[in-house]
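I'll show a typical protein example:
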Amino acid sequence: MNQSIDIRELNERIQKESSFVDMINMEMNKVIVGQKHLVESLMIGVLSGGHILLEGVPGLAKTLAISTLSNTIDAKFARIQFTPDLLPADLLGTMIYSQKKEEFVVKKGPIFTNFVLADEINRAPAKVQSALLEAMQERQITIGDHTFKLEEPFLVMATQNPIEQEGTYPLPEAQVDRFMLKVVIKYPQKEEERLIIQQNLMKQFPQASTILKPADILKAREVVKDVYMDEKIQKYIVDIVFATRDPKAYKLDKYADMISYGGSPRASISLAQASKAYAFIKRRGYVIPEDVRAVCHDVMRHRIGLSYEAEANNVTSEEIITEILNVVEVP
């Protein structure tokens, strides 16, 4: 009985605390036409402190989405165009000699910001990727002997173009795993595209207003942690991840030779955190199985390694996830 009262109280509190979500959506909708899934995913990333990998052809408002979000939160924003000749120092900063002080001083790079847009991330070589890895995982940067903590909220949103493969480097598995979500963006609908044209022909392009401060996001993250997740839901998440590691145990024998490796414990953690953030966005104080299912594809699609056999049979990680969700028992 006590617990049901607590849940009710928690639900009311979270409904009150999450009221800004509708305001952010309203501001984002002024600038971004359609792409509801993209906006939702950005919100999940911001509220759970996870990084996002976006895949889509050029011109689908990826850059516009994150710069608009940083405007609404009054956060610092940096866009870094990744190229094959990019060096770690271009990203992190470097030591330069100051004649005035007669010593080496640190000149910080563009990564010292709240929101980083890593544009076409797969164009940069391994050295740059490993420099970005420390920032993503440890939330810190090392330049020479100095280590700097990055200010929160810190979010990397990386984009990659699925069509063009010339001059690109496949991202290392260790780095791909650091992205909480991999979001695939599709073309807009006909009516949405007409509205996009209309918007771009206006004398003044719409602007989003600032409605929050970075401190408000940090406060909201603490509230997201309070969202209630039942043990049955935790078990459901574990079952989904384990089904990617041992398909036979879940009567998915046909995928046994198609998966070279499944989701790591980081997949389970990300699935739980993203489900809580999704429940918060839907203004609920507790997680339901539908929340897990809603974020599952984005959390898992880049964490399943496909074997040559899967590629030969045109089996995608999307299909495997859908099949797992159909088979694993819902609590």
Remarks:
- The domain at 227-327 is CATH 1.10.8.80 (Helicase, Ruva Protein; domain 3).
- The first strand starts at residue 51 and ends at 55.
